[in-house]
Specification:
Its cofactor is Zn(2+). It comes from Dysgonomonas termitidis. It is a single chain. This protein has ten helices and 13 strands. It is an alpha/beta fold. A six-stranded mixed sheet has the order 10-9-8-11-13-12. It is globular.
Length: about 350
C-alpha cells in the first residue's frame, strides 16, 4: 500500500475531493503524461489511465491533466482505469505555448519549489534565469537557482556579480554530482511531502541531479557529447519520482525558449529589483524609457543599476504586456462565443 501523503496528499486536497460529484471514487497523482494515457500514482500502485470522452474533447490542452495534478479515477482492472475528474489546481507552473499568441502550456502543478538548473559552462545565462524567476514567482512558487557541474571550473566572482540582483530573492546552490557534499546540501533543502520541479535548458544535468538526490538511477541520462564537450539532452517527457523519506521531484525536458505567460507585467519591476528606483520617479505612470525625472534611468546612468538588467526588464515587460493584452482579447472572444452558444440553445428550445 502506497502512502499518498508522501506524494503531497493533505487535508485540503481531501476537502476538494469531497466537493467532487465523484468523491466516492479513488484518487491519485499524475506521474507521467503520454500522448493518449496517463501514469497515475495511487494507493495500490501505478495505474495506466485514459480520459473520459467529455474530458478529452471538452477541454483545451491546458485544461487536460498534467504531471503533478491530482485526479479522481474509476479503476476497471488491477492496472488500468479512467480519469473522470481533475481536482482544482494550485501553484501551476506554465509557460507561453510556442508559436501561440496567448496560449499557456502546463508544465507541472501543485509545485512548492522550482529548481532553475544551469550548468557552469557556456550554458550559464543570467537572462534565461531571469525569465524562469519571473514566471515561477508569478505562479506563487518558490524559485531556487541551482548552478550545476561545478567540477568544470568557473569564476565564482563573475558568477556572483551576474546573479546578485536575483540571488537576493532565492537560495543559490552550486552543485556537482561528483561532489556528494553539494548534493546533500540540496537534499536538505527539500522537505517531506514537498514537490520540486526541475527546469532549464537541455544538457544541464537535471536528470543526473534527480538521480543523485534519489540515490539511485530513477531517470535515463546521457554522458558528455564528444563533439561539443557539453551535456546531451535526455528527458523527453515530464516525469515524477519520489525521494526516500523526503519530497517529490519532477524532471522536465530541456527548453530552448521559455516564453512568458505573465498576466501582470507591472510585477516585473519588483521581481528584477527595479521597483525601489521606480517609486522615486517624478511620474507615477513612468515607463522608464525617456521620461524626465525617471529615477530608473538615473540609476542606470550612475551605474547603480546594471544596464543589462534594465534592458532585460524592458524586453520582458514588452513580452509580458503582449501576452497580457492577447490573453485579455482571447478571453473576450471566448466569452462572446459562449454567449452565442447559449443564445442558439435558447433559440432551439423555443421551437
Amino acid at each position: 500500500m502506497i502512502n499518498l501523503n508522501n506524494y503531497g496528499w493533505n487535508d485540503k486536497l481531501n476537502q476538494l475531493k469531497q466537493e467532487s460529484i465523484h468523491k466516492v471514487l479513488s484518487h491519485g497523482r499524475v506521474a507521467v503524461v503520454h500522448r493518449t494515457c496517463y501514469e497515475i500514482i495511487t494507493e495500490s500502485g501505478l495505474l495506466q489511465c485514459e480520459l473520459t470522452g467529455n474530458m478529452m474533447y471538452g477541454k483545451s490542452d491546458f485544461e487536460l491533466p498534467s504531471v503533478g495534478d491530482w485526479v479522481v479515477f474509476q479503476p476497471f482492472d488491477e492496472s488500468k482505469g479512467i480519469i473522470v475528474d481533475l481536482l482544482p489546481r494550485e501553484r501551476m507552473l506554465y509557460r507561453k505555448k510556442s508559436g501561440a499568441v496567448a496560449e499557456k502550456q502546463a508544465i507541472a502543478s501543485y509545485v512548492d519549489k522550482a529548481f532553475i538548473v544551469q550548468s557552469l559552462d557556456d550554458n550559464f545565462n543570467v537572462r534565461r534565469a531571469e525569465r524562469f524567476v519571473v514566471q515561477i514567482l508569478e505562479a506563487d512558487i518558490k524559485p531556487v537557482l541551482v548552478l550545476n557541474k561545478a567540477d568544470l571550473g568557473f569564476d565564482r566572482q563573475e558568477i556572483d556579480k551576474a546573479i546578485k540582483h536575483i540571488a537576493r530573492q532565492m537560495p543559490v546552490f552550486i552543485t556537482s554530482v561528483h561532489h556528494p557534499k553539494t548534493i546533500r546540501q540540496l537534499q536538505e533543502s527539500i522537505s517531506e511531502g514537498e514537490t520540486v520541479v526541475f527546469v532549464g535548458s537541455s544538457g544541464v544535468g537535471k536528470s543526473s541531479l534527480v538521480n543523485a538526490l534519489c540515490g539511485k538511477p530513477e531517470l535515463l541520462t546521457s554522458g558528455i557529447s564528444l563533439s561539443t564537450g557539453k551535456g546531451r539532452h535526455t528527458s523527453t517527457r515530464r516525469e515524477m519520482v519520489l525521494m526516500d523519506g523526503s519530497g517529490v521531484l519532477i524532471d522536465t525536458p530541456g527548453v530552448r525558449e521559455f516564453g512568458l505567460a505573465v498576466d501582470n507585467p507591472g510585477s516585473l519591476a519588483e521581481m528584477l529589483e527595479i521597483s525601489d528606483y521606480a517609486a522615486l520617479c517624478r511620474f507615477k505612470d513612468c515607463a522608464h524609457i525617456r521620461e524626465p525625472g525617471c529615477a530608473v534611468l538615473e540609476a542606470v546612468d550612475n551605474g547603480i543599476l546594471d544596464y543589462k538588467v534594465y534592458e532585460s526588464y524592458l524586453k520582458l515587460r514588452r513580452e509580458a504586456w503582449h501576452f497580457s493584452v492577447s490573453e485579455h482579447e482571447k478571453r473576450k472572444r471566448d466569452k462572446s462565443f459562449s454567449k452565442l452558444v447559449e443564445e442558439v440553445k435558447k433559440l432551439k428550445s423555443d421551437f
